[in-house]
Specification:
rod-shaped; three-stranded mixed β-sheet
């Protein structure tokens, strides 16, 4: 018998199709951004094999997502966008200072980066601008400001 290609079907439908063709089904779950239970691959699809042969189907765990690009967006809109993409893990916000008031409350950087494929339950870190100036360490190079010299008394 020829093994039907059930790629793209849900697990129940794929199993029913293969079992009705008198095959034994072995399911292998794999990490994927596809919905849970979707058949991603049938390595023997299209081959002629004996009835009662074991046919492997690789099925999505549905446990991954593609990170949306949230850099440059307002922080209040970002958590919803990340959750809508499927994230269930912790979102941590770290602040960085800016002197540009137009950048306040916008995301400067994200980890993982845009379009990264990540586990949905993984941690996400955002760097968000706040208004201010960092205090440099004492040994940081900088600009030397002149020290005012007191005026000499007049005679």
């Amino acid at each position: 018998r020829t093994v039907p290609d059930v790629t793209g079907q849900n697990l129940e439908s794929a199993r029913a199709t293969l079992e009705s063709a008198e095959f034994v089904v072995r399911v292998t779950e794999v990490d994927s951004t596809e919905p849970e239970g979707r058949v991603l691959e049938v390595p023997q699809a299209g081959e002629r094999v004996a009835t009662r042969s074991t046919i492997e189907i690789r099925v999505s765990r549905g446990n991954q997502m593609r990170m949306p690009n949230v850099e440059g967006r307002k922080v209040q809109d970002v958590e919803r966008a990340i959750r809508d993409a499927g994230a269930t893990g912790t979102i941590t916000v770290r602040t960085v200072t800016t002197i540009d008031p137009t950048k306040v409350d916008t995301v400067q950087a994200q980890r993982p980066g845009p379009d990264a494929v990540v586990n949905k339950d993984g941690d996400i870190e955002l760097e968000v601008f706040i208004l201010g100036v960092d205090n440099p360490p004492n040994d940081a190079p900088g600009i030397d400001l002149p020290v005012p010299v007191p005026a000499l008394p007049e005679n």
